[in-house]
Every structure is written in structure tokens, then in C-alpha cells.
Design a protein that fits this description.
The complex is a heterodimer of chains A (about 500) and B (about 950). With about 500 residues, chain A is mainly alpha-helical. Chain A is built from 20 helices and two strands. Chain A has one domain. Chain B is mostly helical. Chain B contains 40 helices and six strands. Chain B has a two-stranded antiparallel sheet. A two-stranded parallel sheet of chain B has the order 3-6. Chain B has a two-stranded antiparallel sheet with strand order 4-5. The chains are: A mainly alpha (about 500), B mainly alpha (about 950). Chains A and B meet through helix 2, helix 7, helix 9, helix 10 and helix 12 of A and helix 6, helix 7, helix 26, helix 27 and helix 31 of B.
């Protein structure tokens, strides 16, 4: 196929981020200036975000009757590797928003670093680009490329403040384990290719439907892929790295890891499971067990944590478990017989989109507060719970924001987190996955307890203890503004989720 | 439109105290009271149409996708509860004004209180199950804020946390139950759901719904086994206890059971669960109330007991029992709120509420004593007071039940005993505190409370008396209309009068009075019994459970979350092994349809070498240099395998790439210790060996199985197209420079940019060359061996020629720009290594940036050249010429493009490696210092 302007237009967001990478790199090489590079990064990300919107509306405005013509219309297939549709654009936007938030947080955080502040943005942008490629990929090759582009940059980011032992350790741990997981992923892909002779999701799906007699390869191949992706999603029992890396990595990187990388990998997992549906019940049982394990283990292990970053790590394990239970709902099949996405399929997409969006907002807010209170120049990140004790009496607004984020993570109504949890529960009930729904409830109940512990400690007054603190003007810094926006959006979507639901519904169809 | 205002006004009211914080304490209370008062007036205004038998409804879409609507309804049941909430709430506002100390923040307290009132009103007026649940959770949160109002008290914080944890968890179960109901009925609209009782009762998931909803309701209403949070919530200020834990929040669970009564009741399961839980809770609460020293604790357990009584009435599931339940809700709210407030006065004026220190307070506070006596009598069920009437109904109903067969007589008997206990603890409360003995060791000199503080109690006591004497007139219509929403016609034939004549229930009541008095006299024995009972305090059970769970998690953390990378890898590998072998086990036969290829000696030797190399690498892994050499053996064998299976291009590329990589690793090794420290014990090595062996076996089997499956290849397509389409015989090269020329163009651009980036980013970095290894053995002082230098200088032009040759023949034979470039770069690196960076730079004044730029430009212009002929970018052209002497010669634009690749590869590789090499400078500060010191010592010798 020929690459026309239409196709280039469709991947405009990717191109813009790519150009930003080069520009920032050259600018850092030309002159080391932290603010300049941060600004360039933010401008690039904003442009990319704007282009996502532009591409979306262009695609909506001129839906061509036949996709063979060169008019922009969804879905636009750019080479067999990449498909730009509402789904891809929605997740791209989500990734870009999270990346923007992380770069503003990093700006505040890196101020405390003596040297080499500029390269961070380079890594962040590369990783973002990988994530964007990931969510638009419909082919194993682009999946792997995107995943590695995202991960390799993340190793560097995790170990960025390498003079702190924990940071270096977390970077190396993540790298080694990630490499192991990637090898599983590759092996799974190779098996599927060997068995079915194709790497495209869609044609693989067709083979899986018609040649299920050799289902053995589906189990091993897709199973291996799930292990590889499950590692990135920190699904139990591939979760061990999560708390270590969250704790060791600089706080903005933990935020990035918890948002961008999770969103991207989950989005592509769902796309893969929808475009190549398998009917191997054993596989779905495996996924269901993994989901339930994640919910239980994540929440239980978070109970005893005294470190907020580790606690958030375990809580993210649990949240991904809730999300993964949505994938199990796909066992009922994704087409309604007429080639259209079934109701279940749509509900799964909606659940995934809403849960991820609310989870991203909440996580950004929580890590944002941690970042604002920390600085690399003062040694370890401030993340022990006792550091936060009595925060309310020193920084009341930050404490209220953190409280609110904890409520949202716990899924209390009037917060965005509740909407996500509601969808997951509704989906599980709709598919009559009773025991999974029960696990979700049980997990949330355990979760309530440790989120509450964090909240309560914020309001304790312990006089006479020297405390770490956020800068006085945190509200005027870009990171502070970001945290405020995240909190406001969490509240808004908690009270009036309609716009978010509409957005996700508009982004639903995936190659169907 | 007026309906939502009832909920909205208190919500706005939660802002009023914050705004009016300057108005002083009385002013603040007055301002706060305005909006709930308006809401009360509105409710009474709307009650007119409710009494006409209408249901006032109002709805506004909120989130239609979730089925969530901002829908309110005011029927009789809602009206009854709304009046209770607003009425008692207003009295509490007055009371709290005098109860709270000047240093407590009035604004914060009233703001929380209004928030709580909003959520309670929301629960009782919701017309949508989800909305109801929203308000339900809001009561949990706002009650958390109220209970922990005195944040400096650790008991307040713990109590609040426990209350929120229990009710919040119950709330989650309730949500699941509601969602099931929504799924069964298809809507969350309460009006519709109330009409779908049969549908729900016949649904297979009915039991699940019932259990989930009951867990929610029981946890909120402190029913067994969730009763333990309520006594610990008593650390709250007394106005909060009076409001939340007598009149409103604990009634939310009861309200829910009554609200959903038409939907989920009427089955055996309902009867047994609700009746038995209620009965047990009633006994447990009454017994615990008997043995409390803390007056508020006594009231808390008595509340639990009375809530159990109401629950049991609901469980009995007859029309009259339901009526009695609703009636008792009202009565209990009235007398319990006034008792709490009276105890609050005692606490406030005496500084303690320990019953062992209090006594004979009648002398100091006669009015309070009188009020508390009446309220206590009502709790005990003395005639002429409201408690009596509902208790009579309760006893009457207990006689009707037949569901326990031959043991049915137990129910009325136990009901009598329960009533007796109620009498006993009422006596304890009133007599011990106000009449018997004298106060001892009081922190404060007791005196009567100010008049306005007693006012709310007086109002409630008046209600007690009025309802007790004229029940039919005062509450009859209200109960009637409330029951119409629950069980229509429940009031038919019922006589809400004081005197029913001498009948069995009256006898039971009298017996209960007498037995209660006896129990009161025997309370010393009960107290000593309690000491044995103390260990089973539910608080310790809860806290213990939490602690055990945490300890378990800590142990689990130690096992799984050891922060040891080795363990993480081990676990991941083990998981993979399980999955893969599970798959293998399901495979009927390993061998596929493709026949095996014959073995030849080359392959056997190569494979053996490869395996030996790999094993040796692992074996020598602690000696890094040797390990690297062993690894190279394996790598070489891989390259030879490529050659053997006819992929010469791949082999060449791999050869050069691995050479360059090994050089890079050697450079790194220079700065690192030569040996890896020993880190694993023998057992661990054995374990890892077994795991690695198992994985090897499984993966090899899978590979074997896959490779013997029939497959198609796309290779043939390219082989066929290479000559006619691109004019070359070397398929790989044709693909690179022609078929996929645009990709290659992009790749070399990336390569160039990456090289530039490395150059610039490493600009200022310096690593000092160590003079000794990490083990403190000095490096050879001869950095550049002479023989190596001479040989490399001789080889250099030869290598360059080879590289040009490989480049030129690339179109038809193995080779090409990429490999050629790498060969040239290797030759240059050899020169650098042999002679040193500085020596080479002095002689080889090539700026690699220019080389890269030139290469990119050549490639770009070749591509653009096609435009001159009206073709798209990078269209290739080729033709054959016959030259004398040389013979047939092919000229292709692809060759020029390949030149661009050649240049970029040389430039980039050199730029990266030369820069890495330049990082290490011999001028280390340590050595400079040592040099300086040696110089000075030698000078001293001279």
C-alpha cells in the first residue's frame, strides 16, 4: 500500500511527538537549560494533544462511504501495523494528558537535581511515543516495538536519580525483569506466528476462530503473551517488581509508570483480546484467576505498608486486577453475529475506558502530592506514612487533595473512582461472573481500610516532630496546578460523569 | 420542585456555619437552624398531599447510562423519617450550642452535622436505589467526620475508623445487592422495584440479593455480628451520639429493611435470618448494657438491643409486627435521644460519665433527674409512656408466631426476658445515677444545666407523654400513612390505644417489670460474670482480626516481597514453566507433520560447540573476561549456523555487529572489577540449575513441536521478485535498498541522529582511566602494544579495501552498504585501539558529522533523483552495460543509495565508539596527584 498524506495526517500525533523528541534532544545538546527543555516538551505534548482532537474531528466529519478512497475516515489503516480509530485516539489523548502531567511534575521535582536534568524529557517523550504506538497497534510487530520503545526509556527514567541507591536498584530490577517478560512475549508471538502464519490481530482472530482444533497453540502462545503483558500490568504473580520500582523510582516516574505504561499496555491487551478472540475456556479461567489473585493479594499486601509509594504500588496491583476482570467478560464472545461488536464487547470497552481514565486522574493526583512534598536534593523521596502525619495542619489543601484521591481510589461515591468501580461491578454482574464480582467487593472492602489509614494520618497533629514539607508556593508551580486540576476533574467526573461516558462511547468501535 | 429542596436546604446549610463563623456561638447555632427549619416547614407543607394518599415525586436525569437519577419521593414512610430527622436534628442544634466547649470549632461541628442531616434526608427520600446508596455512603463519611470530631483523642480516631470500615464494607455489599436488584428488575427506580417483589423473590439470585442487602442493613444498624462498632463510636461528642446513634444513622439500616420490605420479605429465609439475628442482638445488647460502667456505653448497648427488637419485629413478618416496628422506631428515637442528652448533661456538669463515681445527682440537678427518669421509664416500658405501647405490640406479636413449630413458645418467653433486661438496665441508669448513693471523686462540682440545654429534652419528654397517653390521636395518622407505603391496610382493625384489658401481653409486661427489678438487685453477680466474658469483647476480635491479617501479610511480604531480584526472576520463570508445561501436557503428540532433516557432522559439531560455549559462559560467569570469550564461541556458532542454512548476509551482519559489541563490552570491563563476587549458596545454585534445566527442556520441546508443524513462507515471493524488480541477485540487499528503500532511509536518518545525540550528550562527561583493576592489580603500563599497532596499520588499508569490495558487490552477492560500512568501522576501531585515540585523531582528521551528513544527502538525492523522471520518491532504476575488458556491468541507482547507507554507518559507528573511547582520559586526578608527589620526593632526594 502507498503511504499518502491521509495516512500521514492520521498519525500526526505520533509524528509530532517524534519531532518533539528530536527537537528536545538537539536543544539539550545545544544548550543545557532546564526550563527551555521542559517548555519545549510541554509544547510538543500539547500540540500532539491538539492534533489528536483535530484528527478525531476530521475523521468524524468526513466518514467516507468506502474506506478505499483516500478521504480521512475511521478507522484509518496506516500500513498493516497501525490503525488510527476512535479507540486509539482516545487512549492517545489519555496517554498524552498523563505524560503532560508527569512532565510538569518532573519539572518541579528535577529542580532539586544538580545536573543532567534535560535528558529526562527525552526519555519521557520517547516512552510516551512508544505508548502511543502501542495503543494504535493492530499487529504483533508494532505491539512489540511500541512496548520496547516505552519500556527501554522507562528503565532509564526509573534509574534517573542514579546517585540514590534505591533509584538505581529499581531501574536495574525493572530492566532485568522486563527483559524476561519481553522474552516471554516474543516467544508467545513467535509461537502464534509459527502456528497460524500471521502477525496481524485481525487475521489471527480469523484463524483462531476457524482452526481452533489446534487450540494448544492458543493456550501456550496467547498465554505467554498474557504473561508478558501481565508483567507490565503488574498482575499477580508477576507483580513483584511493582512496589520496589514505585518506591525506588523518582516520584514523577512512578506516576508515569502507574499511568502511561498501564494505560497503553491494557489498551492494547483489550484490543488484542477483542480482535483475536479466543474461545479457549481454560485461558479465560487462567485470566480470571489472575485477576482475582491480583485483587486479593494486592489489597492484602497493601494492608501492612508504611510507605505511601509502596502502598500505591500494591493498590495499583489491585486496581489492575479489577480491570482485568473486565477482560474475562469477553469470554462470551465479541460479535453479535452480524460482524458488529456485541453488547458485551461494547460494555467491556466502555468499562476499560472509564476505569482507566478515572484511575489515571486519581493516580496522578496522589503521586502529584507525593512529588510536591519530595525533592531529590533531600535524599530519599518523602513517602513514609509518618512523613505525611499532620500534613493537614501544614498544607491543608494538599492534604485535602490527597484525602480526596484516597477516597477515589477506594471507590467512594462522588469521586471518579466510584464510576469506574461501578462499571466493573456492573459488567461482572451482567456477565454473571458472580465470584469475580464478589472478589471485587471483598477487595474494595479491604482496600477501604488502608486508604482510610492514610487519610487519618494526614489529620493527626504530632507536635514537635520535624516534618518534610512542600514548597510554600507549590500552588503556583506547574506541578501544583496539575495536581489541582486532577483533583477538580476527579470531583467533576465523580459528580457528573456524563462527559467522560460520552467520550468513551464515542471512542468505542475498534476495527469493527 | 419543592421536594428536592428538603435535601438541598440542609446541604446549603452545611456552608452556612462556615460563613457565619464570626457570629458568635449562639448566632452560629441560630444561623445553622434556619435552613433545616425551612426544610421542616416545607416537609409539613408537602405532608398535606401525602396524607391525601399521594406520593410526591420529583426526578431529574443525572447519569442515565448508570441508571442514576436525581429522583426523590415523599411517601408516608419517607415523611415519618424526614420529620424525625429534621425535628430531632433541630433539637440537637440547640443542645450542641451549650454542650460544646468554647474552644471547639462550632462552625466545623455544625457543618458536619448539616452534611449528615443532608445524607440522612437523602436516604429516606431517594426514589432511586443508586441515589439511596450514594447518600448511604455519605452518611458513613459524614458520621466518620462527626465521630472523630475531637481529633486529638486516639479513641475517637480509632472509633471513627472502625465505624467507617464496618459500615463502608457493608455499603459495598449493599451496592452489589442493589446492582443485582437493578439487573433483575431492569431499573433502579424504587417505585418500579416496589412493584416487582414477586419477580425478585422468584429469581434464582434472590438469596444473594437478600444476604447482600441484609449485610448492608445490619452493619449500619449495628446488628450481630456487626454490632461492635457502635459502642466504640461513643467517643463522639454526646450530641452526635444522641443524633446518630439513637435517632438517625443506626435507623438507616432499619429504614432500608422497611423500604425494601415489600420486595424482599415474605420468605422463609427472611424470617429465619432477620428474626434470629434480631433476637440474638436484642439479648446480647441488653446483657452488655447491664454490665457497662460508662453511661454512654450502657446507652449504646441498649440501642443495639432495641434495634435488635425492631429487626426481630420486621422478621416476624406479620402486618402488625411491621406496624410495631415502625412505631418503635419513632418511640425509640424519642426516648433514646432524650436519654443521651440527659447523660450528656451529667457528663458535662460532672466531668465524668463513669457510673461508679456518680450517684445521688438528684440533689444537684433535679430537673435533669426528673426528665431522665421519665425517659428511662419509657425505655423500660412503663405504662402511660410511649415505650409501653410499642412493647405491648411487640409482646402481642411474639405470641402469634408459629414458625418454630413446637419451640414457638420460646419466642414470647425470650421476648419477656428481653423486656426484663431492658427494665433492669433502665433502673440501673436512672436509680444508680440520680437516686442512690452520693457522687465520689467528681472532677467538677455538679450543678444544674442551663435552661436552654434542657429545653430539647423537655420537648422530647412531652412527646413521650403525649404519645404514651393519646397514641391514636398523635401518631395514628402518621403511622397509617407510613404503613401504606410498606404494607397496605396494616392499620385495619388495629387499635392504637393504651388499654386493651387484662390479657396475656399485659401479664407478660408485668412479669417483665418484676423480673427486671429482680435482675437489677442481682446486678453484682452479673458484673462478676462479666469479667469472664470480657475477653470476647468484639472490639478485640475486630482489632485482633485486623492485626492478624496485617501480621499474615507481613509474613507473606517477607516470603514473596523480599526485594530480591533473584527470587522475582525465579518466581516468574516458575510461573512460565507451569503454564508452558500445562500446554505441553495437553498436546497429544509432540512431533508435527514436517519430516526431520538429516543430521550431518557439521551440524553436530556446531551444536556441541554452541552448547559448550553457553555452558562455559555460565560456568565462568564470575570471571568476566573468560565468560565473554566463551560467549563469543556461542555467538560464532550462531553465525556459522546462519551460513550453513544459507543466510550469508545475515551471517556477515551478525559477525560484524557481534565484533563491535564485544569491543564495547571490553571497553566497559576495563572500568569494572574483573570478577563477580560469589553470591549464591550451593543449594540455590542447584535449585536454579533444576529450574533452568526444566525450562530448557520445556522450551526445546515447544520449539521442536512448532518447527515440525507445516508452515508457509513469504521468502519465495522476494526471491522471485528480486531480479526482475530490483535488478539484483542478493535478495536481502534488494529488499533493503529497493523494495523497502524508504524504511532504510528512515533508519539511517535515525542512526545519524542518534549518533549526533550521543556526541552532544556525552560532551562534558569524563571518566578517569584506572591504573589498577578493581582487585588492585596494576594494568599493564603498555597501553598500546607495538606488535598490535604495526599489524593493525598494515591491515588497515586492506580492511578498507575489503569493505569497499563488499559494498560494491552487495547488489548481487552477499554484502552491501550496511555490512561494508561496519567492516570499515571495525578496521578504524582496530586502529584506535592499537594506537590510542589521540594518536589516531592527530592523523585521521575526519569529521564524522560530515560523513554522516554526506551519507544522508547522497541517499536523499538519489531518492529525489527519481522526481526528475516523474517517478515517486526513491523509485529505482537499473540497466546493464557492456564495457570492454571488464565485461557486463550493472548500474543501478540503488547502488548510489547504498553508498549513502555505507557512509552513514561508518560515520555513526565511529562517532559513537570514538566518543565512548574519548570518555576515558588518562589524566586522572589521582595520577596527577601521585605524579606531583613523586616529583616532589625525587626533588627532595636531589
Amino acid at each position: 500500500m502507498n503511504l499518502t498524506l491521509t495516512h500521514l495526517f492520521a498519525i500526526l500525533p505520533l509524528i509530532i511527538v517524534g519531532i518533539t523528541v528530536v527537537v528536545v534532544m538537539l536543544s539539550a545538546a545545544w544548550r543545557r537549560h532546564h526550563f527551555l527543555n521542559a517548555t519545549l516538551t510541554v509544547i510538543g505534548l500539547n500540540l500532539a494533544l491538539a492534533s489528536v482532537v483535530w484528527v478525531y474531528f476530521a475523521g468524524q466529519g468526513a466518514v467516507a462511504p468506502d474506506l478505499a478512497s483516500s478521504a480521512v475516515g475511521f478507522p484509518t489503516l496506516v500500513t498493516p501495523l497501525v490503525m488510527i480509530d476512535g479507540y486509539a485516539l482516545f487512549y492517545m489523548a489519555l496517554i498524552l494528558v498523563a505524560a503532560l502531567a508527569c512532565s510538569t511534575l518532573a519539572n518541579a521535582y528535577l529542580e532539586g537535581l544538580d545536573e543532567h536534568r534535560e535528558e529526562f524529557y527525552l526519555l519521557l517523550l520517547s516512552s510516551t511515543m512508544g505508548a502511543m504506538l502501542l495503543v494504535s497497534s493492530i499487529h504483533m510487530v508494532s505491539l512489540f516495538l511500541g512496548l520496547e520503545l516505552m519500556s527501554v526509556a522507562l528503565y532509564g527514567m526509573a534509574a534517573y536519580t542514579f546517585k540514590r541507591r534505591v533509584s538505581l536498584e529499581s531501574g536495574i530490577k525493572y530492566m532485568v525483569l522486563s527483559a524476561v517478560a519481553s522474552s516471554f512475549l516474543l516467544f508467545g508471538m513467535a509461537l502464534l506466528y509459527a502456528a497460524y502464519g500471521t502477525l496481524e490481530f485481525a487475521s489471527l482472530g480469523l484463524r483462531l476462530v476457524f482452526e481452533d482444533s489446534v487450540g494448544i497453540w492458543t493456550l501456550i502462545g496467547v498465554g505467554m503473551m498474557v504473561i508478558g503483558l501481565g508483567f507490565k500490568l503488574s498482575i499477580v504473580p508477576f507483580h513483584m517488581w511493582t512496589p520496589d520500582v514505585y518506591e525506588g523510582a523518582p516520584a514523577p516516574v512512578s506516576a508515569f509508570l502507574a499511568t502511561v505504561s498501564k494505560v497503553a499496555v491494557f489498551a492494547v491487551l483489550v484490543r488484542f483480546m477483542i480482535m483475536s478472540p479466543t474461545f479457549d475456556t481454560k485461558l479465560h479461567t487462567v485470566i480470571a484467576v489472575l485477576a482475582a489473585l491480583s485483587m486479593i493479594v494486592g489489597n492484602l499486601l497493601a494492608l501492612g505498608q508504611t510507605n505511601l509509594k509502596r502502598l500505591l504500588g500494591y493498590s495499583s496491583i489491585a486496581h489492575l486486577g479489577y480491570l482485568l476482570s473486565a477482560v474475562v467478560a469477553l469470554r462470551a464472545g465479541v460479535t453479535d453475529g452480524g460482524g458488529e461488536l456485541s453488547f458485551t464487547g461494547q460494555l467491556v470497552l466502555e468499562t476499560t475506558g472509564i476505569y482507566l481514565a478515572t484511575y489515571v486522574l486519581t493516580t496522578l493526583g496522589a503521586f502529584g502530592v507525593v512529588t510536591l512534598v519530595s525533592s531529590p536534593s533531600r535524599g530519599q523521596d518523602v513517602a513514609q506514612l509518618h512523613h505525611f502525619r499532620g500534613l493537614f495542619w501544614r498544607r491543608p489543601y494538599l492534604a485535602v487533595i490527597l484525602t480526596f484521591m484516597m477516597l477515589s481510589l477506594a471507590g467512594i461515591p462522588m469521586t471518579a473512582g466510584f464510576i469506574g468501580k461501578f462499571y466493573v461491578l456492573a459488567l461482572n454482574m451482567n456477565e454473571e461472573l458472580w465470584w469475580l464480582a464478589g472478589t471485587v467487593v471483598l477487595g474494595s472492602a479491604i482496600g477501604l481500610y488502608y486508604y482510610l489509614r492514610v487519610m487519618v494520618s494526614l489529620y493527626l497533629a504530632e507536635p514537635g516532630e520535624i516534618q518534610r514539607d512542600a514548597a510554600h508556593d507549590w500552588g503556583q508551580r506547574s506541578g501544583g496546578v496539575m495536581v489541582l486540576i486532577a483533583a477538580l476533574l476527579t470531583l467533576l467526573f465523580g459528580i457528573y460523569p456524563q462527559p467522560l461516558i460520552d467520550l468513551v462511547q464515542a471512542a468505542s468501535p475498534v476495527g469493527y | 420542585m419543592t421536594l428536592p429542596l428538603i435535601v438541598l436546604l440542609p446541604l446549603l446549610g452545611s456552608l452556612v456555619p462556615l460563613l457565619g463563623a464570626r457570629a458568635g456561638r449562639t448566632g452560629s447555632a441560630c444561623l445553622t437552624a434556619i435552613l433545616p427549619l425551612c426544610a421542616l416547614v416545607l416537609t409539613i407543607f408537602l405532608s398535606v398531599s401525602v396524607f391525601d394518599g399521594q406520593i410526591v415525586r420529583y426526578s431529574l436525569p443525572w447519569v442515565p447510562q448508570l441508571g442514576l437519577e436525581l429522583a426523590f419521593r415523599l411517601d408516608g414512610l419517607s415523611l415519618l423519617f424526614a420529620l424525625l430527622i429534621l425535628g430531632i436534628g433541630l433539637l440537637i442544634i440547640v443542645y450542641a450550642r451549650y454542650y460544646l466547649a468554647p474552644e471547639d470549632s462550632m462552625a466545623r461541628f455544625y457543618s458536619y452535622l448539616m452534611l449528615f442531616m443532608t445524607s440522612m434526608l437523602g436516604i429516606v427520600t431517594s426514589d432511586n436505589l443508586l441515589l439511596l446508596w450514594f447518600f448511604w455512603e455519605l452518611t458513613s463519611i459524614s458520621s466518620f467526620l462527626l465521630i472523630s470530631f475531637w481529633t486529638h483523642q486516639s479513641s475517637a480516631r480509632k472509633g471513627a475508623r472502625m465505624a467507617l470500615a464496618v459500615t463502608g464494607a457493608g455499603g459495598l455489599c449493599l451496592l452489589a445487592g442493589f446492582m443485582l436488584i437493578g439487573k433483575i428488575v431492569g431499573t433502579f427506580d424504587i417505585g418500579t422495584i416496589l412493584d416487582s417483589g414477586d419477580m425478585i423473590r422468584e429469581h434464582p439470585a434472590y438469596m444473594v440479593v437478600l444476604v447482600l442487602v441484609l449485610i448492608g442493613a445490619f452493619s449500619k444498624s449495628a446488628q450481630f455480628p456487626f454490632q461492635f462498632w457502635l459502642p466504640h463510636a461513643m467517643s463522639a461528642p454526646t450530641p452526635v451520639s444522641a443524633y446518630l446513634h439513637s435517632a438517625t444513622m443506626v435507623k438507616a439500616g432499619i429504614f432500608l429493611m422497611i423500604r425494601l420490605y415489600p420486595v424482599i420479605s415474605g420468605t422463609d429465609a427472611w424470617y429465619y435470618i432477620v428474626t434470629l439475628v434480631g433476637l440474638f442482638t436484642m439479648f446480647y445488647g441488653a446483657y452488655m448494657a447491664m454490665v457497662q460502667y460508662d453511661l454512654k456505653g450502657l446507652l449504646a448497648y441498649s440501642t443495639i438491643s432495641h434495634l435488635g427488637l425492631i429487626t426481630m419485629l420486621l422478621g416476624l413478618d406479620t402486618r402488625l409486627s411491621t406496624l410495631a416496628a415502625v412505631f418503635h422506631v419513632v418511640n425509640h428515637a424519642i426516648f433514646k435521644a432524650s436519654l443521651f442528652m440527659a447523660v450528656g448533661i451529667v457528663d458535662h456538669e460532672c466531668g465524668t460519665r463513669d457510673s461508679r463515681k456518680l450517684g445521688g445527682l438528684r440533689k444537684y440537678m433535679p430537673f435533669t433527674a426528673a426528665l431522665a427518669t421519665v425517659a428511662g421509664a419509657s425505655m423500660a416500658g412503663v405504662p402511660l409512656l410511649n415505650g409501653f405501647i410499642s412493647k405491648e405490640m411487640f409482646l402481642t406479636e411474639s405470641l402469634q408466631t408459629q414458625n418454630l413449630g413446637g419451640l414457638s413458645w420460646l419466642i414470647p418467653a425470650l421476648a419477656t426476658v428481653g423486656s426484663a433486661l431492658s427494665v433492669a438496665y433502665s433502673l440501673r441508669l436512672v436509680v444508680d445515677v440520680f437516686y442512690r448513693g452520693a457522687p465520689r471523686f467528681l472532677p467538677k462540682e455538679p450543678h444544674e444545666a442551663p435552661r436552654p440545654m434542657r429545653l430539647p429534652i423537655e420537648v422530647l419528654i412531652l412527646l413521650c407523654l403525649a404519645v404514651g397517653m393519646f397514641p391514636a390521636q398523635i401518631v395514628g395518622p402518621l403511622l397509617d400513612v407510613a404503613m401504606s407505603a410498606v404494607a397496605p391496610n396494616a392499620m385495619d382493625g388495629q387499635d392504637l390505644s393504651l388499654w386493651h384489658g387484662f390479657n396475656l401481653p399485659l401479664m407478660m409486661s408485668i412479669a417483665a417489670m418484676a423480673f427486671g427489678a429482680v435482675l437489677y438487685l442481682l446486678r453484682g453477680g452479673l458484673n462478676s460474670f462479666r469479667r469472664d466474658f470480657l475477653v470476647t469483647d468484639a472490639k478485640y476480635v475486630f482489632e485482633g482480626a485486623v492485626q492478624r491479617a496485617t501480621a499474615f501479610c507481613a509474613r507473606a511480604l517477607d516470603r514473596f516481597d523480599s526485594r530480591s531480584l533473584q527470587r522475582y526472576v525465579f518466581l516468574m520463570m516458575a510461573m512460565m514453566l507451569v503454564l508452558a508445561s500445562f500446554g505441553l501436557l495437553r498436546m497429544p503428540v509432540l512431533m508435527g507433520e514436517v519430516p526431520m532433516q538429516p543430521l550431518d557432522p557439521y551440524i553436530i559439531v556446531g551444536a556441541t560447540l554452541m552448547a559448550t560455549g553457553a555452558i562455559a559462559t555460565v560456568y565462568f560467569q564470575r570471571q568476566r573476561l573468560i565468560a565473554l570469550i566463551c560467549l563469543s564461541i556461542t555467538e560464532l556458532m550462531v553465525i556459522l549456523t546462519f551460513l550453513r542454512f544459507s543466510a550469508p548476509d545475515l551471517a556477515l551482519t551478525q559477525l560484524v555487529v557481534s565484533t563491535v559489541t564485544v569491543i564495547l563490552m571490553l571497553l566497559t570491563l576495563f572500568f569494572l572489577p574483573q570478577q563477580t563476587p560469589k553470591a549464591s549458596s550451593g543449594i540455590r545454585i542447584l535449585r536454579d540449575l533444576i529450574l533452568a534445566g526444566a525450562i530448557g527442556i520445556v522450551i526445546a520441546s515447544i520449539n521442536f513441536a512448532v518447527l515440525t508443524q507445516p508452515y508457509e513462507t513469504i521468502g519465495n515471493f522476494f526471491t522471485e521478485q528480486a531480479k526482475p524488480g530490483g535488478g539484483g541477485y542478493n535478495v536481502v540487499n534488494v529488499i533493503l535498498v529497493d523494495f523497502r528503500g524508504f524504511d532504510t532511509f528512515g533508519e539511517i536518518a535515525v542512526l545519524g541522529i542518534a549518533a549526533l545525540g550521543v556526541l552532544k550528550l556525552l560532551n562534558r562527561m569524563k571518566i578517569f582511566v584506572p591504573t589498577t583493576s578493581a582487585e588492585n592489580r596494576p594494568w599493564s603500563p603498555e597501553y598500546y602494544p607495538t606488535i598490535f599497532g604495526s599489524v593493525s596499520q598494515v591491515l588497515f588499508p586492506l580492511a578498507l579495501m575489503v569493505s569497499v569490495y563488499i559494498f560494491l558487490r552487495g547488489h548481487n552477492l552477499p554484502g552491501g552498504g550496511f555490512i561494508g560500512g561496519l567492516v570499515a568501522a571495525s578496521a578504524l576501531i582496530m586502529l584506535y585501539m592499537a594506537r590510542g585515540v589521540e594518536w589516531t585523531l592527530r592523523r585521521l582528521r575526519v569529521d564524522y558529522q560530515h560523513v554522516i551528513a554526506a551519507g544522508l544527502l547522497v541517499a536523499a538525492f538519489t531518492g529525489m533523483g527519481a522526481w526528475a523522471f516523474g517517478e515517486p520518491f526513491l523509485t529505482s532504476w537499473f540497466d546493464y552495460f557492456h564495457l570492454p575488458l571488464i565485461g557486463e556491468l550493472e548500474l543501478a541507482t540503488a547502488l548510489v543509495f547504498d553508498l549513502g547507507i555505507y557512509l552513514v554507518v561508518i560515520g555513526s559507528t565511529m562517532m559513537i565508539l570514538a566518543n565512548l573511547g574519548k570518555l576515558a582520559t588518562p589524566h586522572s586526578p589521582a595520577r596527577e596527584a601521585r605524579k606531583a608527589s613523586t616529583k616532589s620526593t625525587t626533588m627532595e632526594h636531589h
